[in-house]
UniProtKB/TrEMBL annotation:
Its EC number is 6.3.2.10. HAMAP family: MurF. Involved in cell wall formation. Catalyzes the final step in the synthesis of UDP-N-acetylmuramoyl-pentapeptide, the precursor of murein. Keywords: ATP-binding, Cell cycle, Cell division, Cell shape, Cell wall biogenesis/degradation, Cytoplasm, Ligase, Nucleotide-binding, Peptidoglycan synthesis. Residues 107-293 form the Mur ligase central domain. This is UDP-N-acetylmuramoyl-tripeptide--D-alanyl-D-alanine ligase.
Length: 450
C-alpha cells in the first residue's frame, strides 16, 4: 500500500520530488475536506458543483499532510500536481490492484449488493482473517478507487461492491478492480429513471462478467429473469442460487415475525444444511444464498460459510426492528426504497402480530416514466398484504395512498404525518418507515423513538 508522496509520484510517472516533500507520509486518504482526519492525504476532486481546490486550507487545518491537486494552490500545504485528480486516483488504484495478489470477489445488482458484500465479508474473515471490504456504499467511480488503494500485503482477500446509474459504469469499475469472482444479485426497478429500461439495467449489471478471468466464477440469481442472458455472456463457469431454483436453494424457509429467518440450504449431490439468519425477509434469504454461493465458489468450507452468514446483523436503516414511544414496534427501513425492497419490507410488516400495522411511505425516487405505476402498485400490494394504514409523504407516494383505499392518507410534510399518526398508536402497533434517501425518513424514526 502506497503511503508516501515520493512513491505516489513515481507510480503516477511524475517528476521526482525533493527529499523533504517526497518523505511525507499519510495514514489515510480523503476526498472530503469536511471529514478529513489528521495525517491524511487530501485529494482535491472537481465536480459539477464543487471544487476541492477551494478547501485546501481547511484540509491543512484539520491535519492533512499533503494534497493531490490538478492545479497549484496558494497554500503552504505540500501539493502533488497531476493533470486530473480523478484519473490519478484511478491510476493509483489500478497500480495497487496490479501489485496485490489474492482472491477478489465483485458484487453488483439493483438490490442487495451492500448486504451481500457484508455477508461475504463476514464469511471470508472467518476463513482468511484479514479481508478488505468496501466500506459503506463507496461503490462508484470515486469510492471504489479509494477502496482499492487500501489493498495491502496483509489482506488475504477482498470484497468489492460496484454500483452504477448509467451504462458503461460497471464496465469501467470492473476493468479497474479485475475481480476473480463476480456476483449479480438481481435486476429490479431501482434506477430505472437513469437507465430507461429493465433491459438496459441488466446490460449494465452484466458488464461485470466480461472482466472475469476464464479461471473465475460468475454467481448468478437463477430466480431473476435475466439469469440466462448473463449466463450466455459469462467467460467462466457459472454457479447459480435461488429461492426456488439454482445450484444452491433455500428450502423449508421460515421468516420470524420478530426478525430473522431460517432455512434448509440445498445444494448439489444432495447436500443439505440448516442456516440461521439475523436478517429479515425473503429478499435477505436470497442475499444470503448469493453470499453462500460466492464463498463456496471461492473454496470456503461449507460449515465456515454457514457460521459467517449467521453473524451478520441488520445495518442501520435496513429492516432494523426497535421499540418506539408508547412501546410501539418500529421497523426502520428508511435507508432507501425501490419497488422490490418496499414489497419485501411490507411482507415483514404483514408477518408481525399487531393491533394495527402502519406503513409510513415516502417517494421511491429514480423510477423514470413508470414512477406513477410503481407507486400505485405498492399501494395495492400493501392493501393485499393486510396492512391497516398507509400514510404517505411526497407527491408520488400520495398515489400509493390513493390506491391503498380506506386507511390511505396523504400528507405534505413529515410534521403533519406525525401529528396524524401518533395519537392513534398503542403499545401493540407496528410501524414500518420506508422511503428513498432524499426523503430523510430517518427523521421520522428518531422522532418515533423519542
Amino acid at each position: 500500500m502506497i503511503t508516501q508522496l515520493a512513491q505516489l509520484a513515481d507510480i503516477l510517472q511524475l517528476a521526482p520530488l525533493s527529499a523533504a516533500v517526497g518523505a511525507l507520509e499519510w495514514a489515510q486518504v480523503s476526498t472530503d475536506s469536511r471529514k478529513i482526519a489528521p495525517q491524511s492525504l487530501f485529494v482535491a476532486l472537481v465536480g459539477e458543483h464543487f471544487d476541492g481546490h477551494d478547501h485546501l486550507a481547511q484540509a491543512r487545518e484539520k491535519g492533512a499532510v499533503a494534497a493531490l491537486v490538478s492545479r497549484p494552490v496558494a497554500d503552504p500545504l505540500p501539493q502533488l500536481v497531476v493533470p486530473d485528480t480523478l484519473q490519478a486516483l484511478a491510476d493509483w488504484a489500478s497500480w495497487q490492484r496490479q501489485h496485490w495478489q489474492g482472491p477478489m470477489i465483485g458484487v453488483t445488482g439493483n438490490n442487495g449488493k451492500t448486504t451481500v458484500k457484508e455477508l461475504l465479508g463476514a464469511i471470508l474473515r472467518l476463513h482468511y482473517g484479514d479481508v478488505l471490504v468496501t466500506a459503506g456504499n463507496l461503490n462508484n467511480h470515486i469510492g471504489m478507487p479509494l477502496t482499492l488503494i487500501q489493498l495491502a500485503s496483509h489482506h488475504q482477500a477482498a470484497v468489492i461492491e460496484m454500483g452504477a446509474n448509467h451504462l458503461g459504469e460497471i464496465d469501467a469499475l470492473a476493468a479497474l478492480a479485475r475481480p476473480d469472482y463476480g456476483v449479480i444479485t438481481n435486476v429490479t426497478g431501482a434506477h430505472l429513471g437513469e437507465f430507461g429500461s429493465m433491459d438496459a439495467i441488466a446490460e449494465a449489471k452484466g458488464e461485470l462478467l466480461a472482466h472475469l478471468p476464464p479461471s473465475g466464477t460468475a454467481i448468478l440469481n437463477a430466480d431473476d429473469t435475466y439469469c440466462r442472458y448473463w449466463q450466455a455472456q459469462s467467460p467462466c463457469p457459472v454457479h447459480t442460487f435461488g429461492l426456488s431454483q439454482g445450484d444452491w436453494q433455500a428450502e423449508a424457509l421460515t421468516l420470524y415475525p420478530e426478525g430473522g429467518a431460517s432455512f434448509t440450504l440445498s445444494g448439489p449431490d444432495g447436500i443439505q444444511r440448516q442456516v440461521q439468519l439475523q436478517l429479515s425477509g425473503r429478499h435477505n434469504v436470497s442475499n444470503a444464498l448469493a453470499a453462500i454461493t460466492g464463498a463456496l465458489s471461492m473454496g470456503v468450507p461449507l460449515e465456515t460459510v454457514i457460521a459467517g452468514v449467521a453473524k451478520v446483523q441488520p445495518a442501520a436503516g435496513r429492516l432494523q426492528v426497535a421499540q418506539g414511544l408508547m412501546g410501539i414496534t418500529l421497523i426502520d427501513d428508511s435507508y432507501n426504497a425501490n419497488p422490490g425492497s418496499t414489497r419485501a419490507a411490507i411482507d415483514l410488516l404483514a408477518l408481525r402480530p399487531a393491533s394495527s400495522r402502519w406503513l409510513l411511505l415516502a417517494d421511491m425516487k429514480e423510477m423514470g416514466p413508470e414512477s406513477e405505476w410503481f407507486h400505485r402498485e405498492i399501494g395495492e400490494y400493501a392493501a393485499q398484504q393486510g396492512i391497516d394504514h398507509l400514510l404517505s409523504y411526497g407527491p408520488m407516494a400520495r398515489l400509493a395512498a390513493e390506491t391503498f383505499g380506506p386507511g390511505g392518507e396523504a400528507y405534505d410534510t413529515q410534521d403533519a404525518l406525525l401529528e396524524a399518526v401518533i395519537p392513534r398508536l398503542d403499545a401493540q402497533s407496528v410501524v414500518l418507515i420506508k422511503g428513498s434517501r432524499s426523503a430523510h425518513m430517518e427523521h421520522l424514526v428518531t422522532r418515533l423513538q423519542s
